[in-house]
From TrEMBL:
InterPro entries according to UniProt: PFN, PFN_euk, PFN_sf
The protein's name in its UniProt record: Profilin
GO MF, one annotated term: actin binding
Keyword annotations of the record: Actin-binding
Region listing for Disordered, in residue ranges: 100-123
Family: Belongs to the profilin family.
Biased composition (Low complexity): 100-117
Top-level taxon of the source organism: Eukaryota
Amino acid sequence: MSWDSILHSMLQSDCINRAALAGRDGLIWSATPDFQPTQQEILNLVNYCEGESASPASFTLAGRRYLTLRRLEGCIDVALTLNCVVVGAYVAPAETPLTAPPAQHKQSNSLQQCQQQPNRSEKVHQTVMNVRLYLRENGF
């Protein structure tokens, strides 16, 4: 099985721009170049998902801190299979240079992100769940 091809298929969706596939032991099988979680970060996620650790207020993955509350500028979804950890994320691109007055630009940008977020979050979740199902059907 080609882990890179599975990762590539996740990135073909319009909702995921960072992804990783790892073993439950934390070893990374495939990840996007700009999203390189550590073995310990993956192990922490596995422990959290299996209920072996208390629900954290935040966690770190690939050097980026995520709150378990919704972020306006991005979202992340994690799924476990028997042997695999599937991570899909959307990280908002850096803001473009301001063409409007700063306060107006920030307000407009936040409104757009709020309007898009619920749909994007659901798409990220659905893509990760589809990969999880595929891996489970193939014995992972």
